[in-house]
Amino acid sequence: MATENATTCAHQKTKMMEYKNMVKRGLALCGLLSLLSCGGHKPQFVGKPLLKHDSVQQTGYDTTKLSALSQFIKDSSRTTGMVVLYDGKVLFEYGDVSQVSYLASCRKSILSMLYGKHITNGTIDLNETIGNLGIEEDDGLLPIEKQATVDHIITARSGVFHLPANGGYDTRNVKTRGSVKPGSYFLYNNWDFNVGGAILEQYTGQSVYKELQEQLAIPLGFEDWNLKNQKKKWNKRKSRYAAYHIYVSPRDLAKMGQLMLNKGKWNDEQLIPKSWVDQSTSMVTPVDTVNARNGWTHNDMPQLSYGYMWWLLESFKDNADYEGAFSATGWGGQFLTVIPKRKLVIAHMTKMDKLSLWGFHYKGVSDLTYWKIVDRLMQSQTTK
Fold first, then answer.
1. Which residues form the Beta-lactamase-related domain (predicted)?
2. Domain total in the chain
C-alpha cells in the first residue's frame, strides 16, 4: 500500500510538473507572439519612394538571371520581402516590400548609425567608463566590469558577462564574471548591446526610437514608419536594460543601407559623419576570433570580422568585389548588406509571425540560404 501511494504521489508530481511546463511554454509563446506582432500601425507620415531604374539592361544585370533569382528565392527560402538597390535605385524586388517586421539583431547596426553624429559633436565620449555613467545592475557590477568604456560596449568587448534581458546571444563563450579585462575579449552578448541603447538615451535625453525617427526616418523619407510600432523588451529579473527592438519595412531598411553606402550623405545633407561610417565599418575583432567563437572554419562562407556593431565581409568565394562590404544580421532572415564595389544594397526580411507550435521553432531564412541568394545576385551582373 505504501509503495502504491508513493507511486501515485510521484505520478501526480510528474503531472503537475508537466502542467507547469505547459503553462510556462504557453506564457512564453504569448510573450513571443506579443513581441513579434508589432508593426500593425499605419505609416506615421508620407515618405518618399525610392527611384527605380528605367531599364535593367542598362545596369548591366541580366533580366533572365534576375527572374531565376526570384524563382530560387520562392523555391528555397521563406523570404517575405527583399529590395536590392544598385547605384541608389531599385534594381530588384521580391515579395511585400512595404510589410513592417521585426529586425532582430539588425537593430544593433542601426544603433551604430545613431551614435555617429553624437560621437563627432562630442555629446558621446567613447572613452567614458560605464561606471562613471552610472550603469549598474540590481545584483551589482564588479569594479573591473565598471571599467568598461562606451567603446568596449559598442564593439562587444566589455568583459561584462551579465545576463541580458533577452536571449539570442553567445552562451557558449561566456566566462566567469570579472575574469577578463574590458576590451580584451569579444563576446556577442546582448547585455552590451542593450546597455549601448541605454547609453545613447542617457546622453541624448530621448529614446532610441525618437533618435531613429529624427536622424533617419524623417530625412530619408521612410514610407512605412510609425513610432507606435516600436517596442522594447524588458525582463528586470535578468537585467535593468531592455532590448530596443525595431520594426521597419524592407524598403525603409534599404534606405538605411543606401545612406551607409553614401558614406552618411543623403540629398547633399551629411546625416552621419563620414568619419564614423568609416570607423564603424572598420575591423575591431578579426576573422580568426569570430571563427573561434562560432566554431567556424576558413572554409565557411563568408569570412566575417566585427566592427562597431557591423559584421564585415573579409572574403567570400575569393571574389574581390566583396572587399569593403559589411552587413547587419538578424535572427530568422533579417539582413542589410552593403557592397560598395558593386554599388549594391540588399535589404532582406522575413515576417516574424510564423511559428511552429510544436517547439516554437521559427523556420525563417538561414544565413547559408541568404548568402546563396547574394551570390546569385552578384552573378546576375554580366557587365560592369
1. 82-351
2. 2
